[in-house]
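Figure 3 (text version): structure tokens given as input.
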């Protein structure tokens, strides 16, 4: 009895010791996993912080270049609007430098550079406040700001490299630690099982318990690995989307990143067009079965404004935007920015594993869509602002300022390539009388109709501009004088058949007069070509209108 009691006591002691060891390993494993996860999160936060500083520095560099560019345009054209834009850019640079001071407060060296940038931007603001047509370009202030921005950018890029390396080391350490913990746990489990073999009655329960704990640990490891992979994918996607220069490139890049984030799925990006009535498929991956559709309410996700699953047992209602038979399982996620719905993401799942992947990465999917939506909104706004700065508001043709810049560029190109350049000046005949008789609405309709004729009558490389009032101008690169004259006759013929509507009235029988000057025969400078095209135009006016005149003929007549 005493011997049996001692054996029982020894077995209980061994079991308690083994169980205690298992608990200790579990606690240590949990602490190590938690510590490594915190280190990984901290490293990712520092990387994101450095990215934020680099983005702010990039904005500061763009604002400095914009201030210099607008100042030069002001000196060149005397346009006060360009000076105001240069001052606005300088003021925004002051705001950006203040934000930089806040972002780099953790670095004394960068904080000093941010102070210098703030001082430099203040000096640039002061220089532009006193800037006028007779002033010299504030090159020293601009160069000083650019040097500081370049220095800070180099420093931050070095920090970014270090922090990226630290993040990778954290990931490696996390995986290694977890693998070691799993190995240690398995070793402890083997010892525990060796002692529990003596007790057959408890073996089954202990085995089940061990299996459950192992599965739980494996799930934890997989969840951490998946989270780390998701964070890496989102960082790479954000960096790539920020590099996109046009909207099509952005859509293609976003679809590729979505295919990485949601493997074993198919899908497409569908964006609402400018009419707000048609939803267009702009990019896709896999074998999605969605095509352009109208109206947007055909998608239940767009109609509800929330991510919406179509899945057996969850929702039996299909969207109506499919080209063929609707699949059994898919999700539609609206895409919005600044409170406006831009479109939706369609993701098609072929099996339960794909559904679980989408659900597990839904938070990352929302983040990626938010990044993409902000990038789309930014590119659209940038395109709109650029278009407004070079387009005439009434006709949609290029404005006079853009014409002057384009004429300088085309003259330089023609001189460099030893080519010709035709300048065609057009004027609507008796426009003032027509405008006074029928009203400004009819006059505007006539100008818009002429602009439409010009757009449809010129080559892709030609540039049509509204010069002012009822005067228009066309630049025709690399063309003979005969070709320019034939083009003018085509335009005269098209205008003679033009009809426009204003209110309930329809107007026709329009005519125009055209003057043509050719580089280099009729002049080698912008002023000479414009003056001589104008002389040819007034020759057409004096000879009865509704005709085209070449400056060579005017000179010969003299």
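Below: residues designed for each position.
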């Amino acid at each position: 009895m005493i011997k049996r009691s001692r054996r029982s006591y020894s077995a209980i002691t061994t079991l308690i010791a083994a169980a205690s060891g298992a608990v200790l390993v579990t606690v240590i494993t949990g602490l190590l996993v938690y510590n490594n996860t915190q280190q990984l999160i901290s490293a990712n936060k520092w990387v994101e912080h450095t990215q934020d500083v680099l983005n702010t520095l990039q904005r500061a560099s763009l604002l400095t270049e914009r201030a210099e560019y607008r100042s030069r345009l002001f000196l060149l054209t005397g346009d006060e609007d360009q000076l105001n834009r240069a001052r606005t850019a300088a003021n925004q640079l002051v705001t950006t430098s203040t934000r930089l001071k806040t972002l780099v407060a953790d670095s004394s060296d960068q904080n000093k550079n941010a102070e210098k940038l703030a001082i430099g931007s203040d000096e640039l603001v002061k220089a532009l406040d006193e800037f006028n047509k007779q002033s010299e370009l504030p090159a020293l202030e601009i160069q000083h700001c650019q040097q500081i921005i370049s220095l800070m950018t180099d420093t931050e890029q070095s920090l970014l490299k270090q922090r990226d390396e630290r993040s990778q080391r954290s990931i490696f350490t996390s995986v290694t630690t977890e693998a070691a913990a799993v190995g240690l746990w398995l070793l402890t489990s083997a010892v525990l099982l060796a002692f529990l073999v003596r007790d057959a009655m408890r073996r089954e329960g202990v085995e089940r318990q061990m299996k459950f704990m192992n599965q739980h640990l494996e799930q934890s490891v997989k969840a951490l690995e998946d989270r780390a992979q998701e964070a890496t994918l989102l960082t790479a996607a954000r960096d790539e989307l920020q590099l996109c220069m046009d909207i099509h490139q952005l859509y293609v890049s976003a679809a590729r990143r979505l295919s990485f984030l949601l493997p074993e799925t198919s899908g497409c990006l569908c964006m609402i067009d400018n009419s707000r009535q048609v939803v267009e498929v702009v990019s896709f991956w896999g074998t999605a079965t969605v095509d352009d559709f109208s109206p947007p309410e055909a998608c239940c996700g767009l109609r509800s404004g929330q991510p919406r699953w179509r899945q057996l047992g969850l929702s039996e209602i299909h969207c109506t935007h499919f080209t063929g038979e609707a699949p059994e399982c898919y999700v539609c996620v609206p895409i919005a920015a600044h409170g406006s719905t831009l479109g939706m993401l369609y993701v098609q799942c072929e099996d339960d594993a794909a559904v679980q992947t989408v659900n597990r990465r839904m938070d990352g999917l929302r983040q990626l869509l938010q990044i993409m939506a902000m990038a789309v909104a930014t590119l659209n706004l940038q395109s709109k602002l650029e278009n407004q700065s070079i387009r005439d508001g009434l006709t949609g043709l290029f404005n006079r300022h853009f014409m002057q810049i384009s004429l300088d560029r085309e003259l330089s190109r023609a001189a460099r390539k030893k080519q010709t350049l035709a300048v065609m000046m057009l004027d609507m005949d008796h426009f003032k009388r027509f405008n006074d008789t029928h009203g400004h609405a009819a006059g505007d309709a006539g100008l818009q109709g002429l602009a439409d004729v010009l757009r449809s009558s010129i080559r892709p490389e030609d540039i049509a501009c509204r010069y002012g009032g009822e005067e228009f101008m066309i630049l025709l690169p690399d063309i003979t004088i005969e070709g320019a004259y034939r083009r003018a006759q085509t335009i005269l013929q098209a205008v003679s058949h033009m009809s426009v509507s204003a209110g309930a009235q329809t107007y026709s029988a329009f005519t125009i007069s055209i003057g043509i000057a050719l580089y280099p025969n009729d002049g080698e400078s912008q002023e000479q070509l414009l003056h001589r095209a104008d002389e040819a135009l007034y020759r057409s006016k004096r000879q009865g209108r509704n005709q085209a005149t070449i400056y060579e003929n005017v000179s010969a007549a003299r």
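The chain has 15 helices and twelve strands.
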